[in-house]
Design a protein that fits this description.
Layout lengths: L8 E5 L4 E4 L8 E5 L4 E8 L2 E6 L4 E6 L3 E5 L5 H12 L5 H14 L8 H19 L6 H13 L4 E6 L2 E6 L2 H7 L6 H11 L11 H16 L8 H24 L5 H12 L8 H17 L14 E6 L5 E6 L10 E5 L2 E9 L5 E9 L2 E10 L2 E7 L9 E9 L4 E10 L2 E10 L5 E5 L6 H6 L2 H6 L5
Parallel strand pairs: 15-17
Antiparallel strand pairs: 1-4, 1-7, 2-3, 4-5, 5-6, 8-9, 10-11, 11-12, 13-14, 14-15, 15-16, 17-18, 18-19, 19-20
Helix pairs in contact: 1-2, 1-3, 2-3, 2-4, 3-4, 3-5, 3-6, 5-6, 6-8, 7-8, 8-9, 8-10, 9-10
Length: 470
């Protein structure tokens, strides 16, 4: 954190679009527009104007005294600066001003008296500013956000930018948050906030390859595990559980892709989701809960061991080209050398999910091509022979979602599925009765209780293990 001044007294701009003028009067030429958090050197005062020097722009001028706060950098004034930082830390829209005050505090306080608190405050405000810049959809505030990002950049706060889903994602690089985690004096809430700021799902570089992605996820899991289980309020503890659930779910997918055993990671993801106290979820956290649940839902089959089910059909896998898995459908008369049907994929095939109907005319199988996207393969017999259809969670581009088999309806003509996915920032969950011949949804509802067919014929193993019934 850098405060580029050696003077004992500075002026911090407190109002957006304040004018740096050529003379101490309102009619004087405006030399620059100043924003909250900018730091000026004081060189004198005339009437109700301060004579200042802007080191950033290398320009002298005058600014109204009412638009700045004169601040001393003497050690004795450090407690007062910290009080202002504490107030601004939790004031959305004042992040640049708060970071400027925190920088002034670090300049004033003796080195031996520095604790984790100012670094926690800077990291929290920088993280929130990045989040606001990424989610802002109001053109009127774009200029203000851009200016505030520029101000904190001059103070040493660095941001990363990624293009994601056609929009720009802004993320704090986390320098102050990493300092918090490295300080023995940091308490549990400070460690939790630091870990959450460093492990945001949306701030993982989307251009990373599988190996680099895996290492980043392992690091995220380690950071989250450094947060103590005690000393957190229920809301903050819930957020830690939710973030852990999502990270461990992605690790389970990565491990199976690396031919490792994913059961431990997948079980951890399910356990972390189950540990969330749903009565303590705010509206914002409820959305994050659904986000984590869908991530866990995509990889949850990694927690299940393969088990012998009833039915006349089974599937096995064989290697295809490097990185590819081929699925072979078999019955009592058709083995791996002469399968009923075969299809290959570069996704992860969850054999534990394979479920055949009793008549031997259909089998459902979960296949996961992406860490946060799981599809349903349907092997079914038609008049033309065996067909393999792929049912996605949604018709949109692969993103965050899953679809899973939930039961067979007697008569070999229909099956039960549940789809859950995110579209345009909103989550949708539907319980459906699907026809096997056309794959059309015959009936759907937001809860299974509204579908008598679903309520009656849902699979017992699905009901026990799914996260859709959370």
């Amino acid at each position: 954190m850098i405060l580029a001044t050696t003077v004992a007294t500075i002026a911090i701009v407190t109002q957006n679009q304040s004018s740096l003028r050529a003379a101490p009067r309102d009619s004087a030429t405006q030399q620059a527009g100043l924003w909250q958090g900018e730091v000026l050197e004081i060189r004198g005062q005339k009437l109700d104007y301060l004579q200042v020097y802007d080191h950033r722009r290398e320009r002298a001028g005058y600014i109204k005294a009412s638009q700045v706060r004169v601040t001393s950098l003497a050690p004795g004034d450090a407690p007062e600066l910290l009080t202002v930082v504490r107030f601004l830390r939790d004031s959305p829209g004042s992040e640049a001003l708060g970071i400027s005050y925190a920088a002034a505090y670090l300049k004033a306080v003796p080195a031996e008296a520095i604790t984790a608190e100012p670094f926690d405050a800077i990291g929290t405000m920088a993280d929130r500013l990045a989040l606001r810049a990424s989610t802002n959809r109001v053109k009127a505030s774009e200029a203000t956000l851009a200016a505030h990002l520029d101000v904190v950049a001059q103070l040493g706060v660095k941001m990363k930018r990624f293009e994601r889903d056609g929009s720009m994602q802004v993320c704090y690089d986390g320098e102050m948050l990493r300092r918090v985690l490295g300080m023995p004096s940091a308490d549990a809430p400070q460690r939790a906030r630091a870990a959450l700021g460093l492990t945001r799902n949306e701030c993982v570089d989307p251009s990373l390859g599988p190996t680099d992605q895996y290492e980043v996820d392992r690091w995220r899991a380690e950071v989250l595990d450094r947060v103590p289980s005690t000393g957190l309020d229920p809301e903050l503890l819930n957020r830690v559980h939710l973030r852990r659930a999502g990270v461990w779910a992605e690790l389970a997918f990565a491990q199976v892709r690396r031919s490792e055993i994913p059961q431990g990671a997948a079980e951890r993801a399910v356990q972390e989701l189950a540990a969330v106290n749903k009565t303590e979820l705010s509206d914002e956290d409820a959305t994050d809960y659904t986000d984590s649940a869908v991530r866990v839902g995509a990889s949850r089959w990694g927690a299940e061991s393969a088990q012998k089910r009833g039915g006349k059909l089974t599937v096995t896998t064989t290697p295809g080209v490097p990185g590819e898995t081929c699925v072979l459908l078999q019955d009592a008369k058709h083995d791996v050398r002469n399968p009923l049907a075969q299809r290959c994929t570069f996704g992860s095939v969850w054999l534990a999910s394979a479920n055949s109907n009793w008549s031997g005319t259909a089998l459902a199988l979960a296949v996961q091509p992406l860490a946060t996207w799981r599809e349903l393969w349907l092997f079914h017999q038609t008049a033309r022979g065996w067909t393999i259809d792929v049912l996605p969670p949604a018709t949109s581009n692969p993103g965050l979602g899953y679809i899973e088999f939930a039961g067979w309806v007697p008569g070999a003509k229909r099956m039960l599925v549940v789809r859950e996915h995110q579209l345009d920032g909103r989550f949708r969950r539907r319980f459906e009765v699907v026809r096997l011949d056309t794959l059309a949804t015959e009936h759907s509802a937001s809860t299974p209780e509204l579908l008598p067919t679903f309520a009656r014929w849902q699979d017992s193993i699905w009901k026990r293990t799914t996260v859709a019934m959370r």
